[in-house]
């Protein structure tokens, strides 16, 4: 597997990413030059104290904010130089978000929530529903298809949110404290699903302050004061490291 | 570590011979605490001396079998009922190391903390992967289910333990950062890590940390 990954393009590549808020005396360096690549099949956890830049990294990776300098490349497209239209299309087609508070639309069923990004992308409602049902089925959530968010537990809603994040061809899931509002058992099952989706070929970034959830990742990146201070690697992922070093 | 009681617990299910006890002990605990056969026989000899087990003939292959005695059974159930003694915390190398690193000249305690955090999270990643495997085995209902469940519990204990260590390390770092700030800044900035963001040279503040602790 590492051999295979090595030859693959990263789904997400961050190059010397810098984000500075304000200027002069009030200047705050949220990110000070981050390099990070996430390959298909890889789940990367980002840890660090609050204010270390974890969430900034995620919003930049998802094109929700613009870096002060540096590049964000998603599936080969540099989103920092992309047009608004291209960026919007990329956000719809390539990037999925999972937030702490699920963010499902209350008036829509699970299947409709999952189908929504595809419908927004101009796919017929029937096709969108079919792919939503397929995604839910594949993740073992088929029985939730016709339930509304308030008829589901927090853990079920979060799993549906993961299905929505990865419906269609989308391969990049950005999760910001997805287990934050869940008890530890349920949080675990959400992580297990995220892990399984990455094992099936997606690429994921998980921002968390919980070591137990970070431990599900292939790599754990430690941020402090806007810089990567350290990262762990899975023991069998050494060749991945070399592949990455060569790519930089 | 109570190998004694572990062996008694296994013998409670019927007579067994030495290397069989070793295999079963390791299978239950996923070889987390490997035993050698020598330890097993030494322990059996002591249990026999104390009247808690007794030789019980041989099996067809000529292995000497041991059986639990009534006294052994009483001891075993008392063990289950009695909480594990927490009066004397076991010596912990990491606590001792950090205690020594506080204010030590030429030691960057944040680097000490980070290198440990790396190792601790790495261990958690390994345990978590093993846990996923163990969980799959339990859920598939394959053979030796009881041993798989026991192994799962042991693994989860290791995960909780490493988690506690990782949290404690985070706490230590936050605490040290906060203590290194002048008092007025401390009051103004309740959240230590954000305060850290504006203190770009944390290592130079170490000696001050030590002084404020002593004072």
Automatic annotation (TrEMBL), chain A:
This is ABC transport system ATP-binding protein. Keywords: ATP-binding, Nucleotide-binding, Transport. It comes from the Bacteria. InterPro entries: AAA+_ATPase (IPR003593), ABC_transporter-like_ATP-bd (IPR003439), ABC_transporter-like_CS (IPR017871), ABC_transpr_LolD-like (IPR015854), MacB-like_ATP-bd (IPR017911), P-loop_NTPase (IPR027417). Residues 12-245 form the ABC transporter domain. GO terms for molecular function: ATP binding. Gene3D superfamilies: P-loop containing nucleotide triphosphate hydrolases.
UniProtKB/TrEMBL annotation, chain B:
Keywords: DNA-binding. Residues 7-76 form the Transcription regulator PadR N-terminal domain. It comes from the Bacteria. The keyword DNA-binding applies. Residues 185-215 are annotated as: Disordered. Residues 194-209 have a biased composition (Low complexity). One of its GO terms (molecular function) is DNA binding. Residues 91-176 form the Transcription regulator PadR C-terminal domain. Pfam families: PadR (PF03551), Vir_act_alpha_C (PF10400). PANTHER family: NEGATIVE TRANSCRIPTION REGULATOR PADR, TRANSCRIPTIONAL REGULATOR YQJI. This is DNA-binding PadR family transcriptional regulator. It comes from Streptomyces avidinii. The lineage of its organism: Bacteria, Bacillati, Actinomycetota, Actinomycetes, Kitasatosporales.
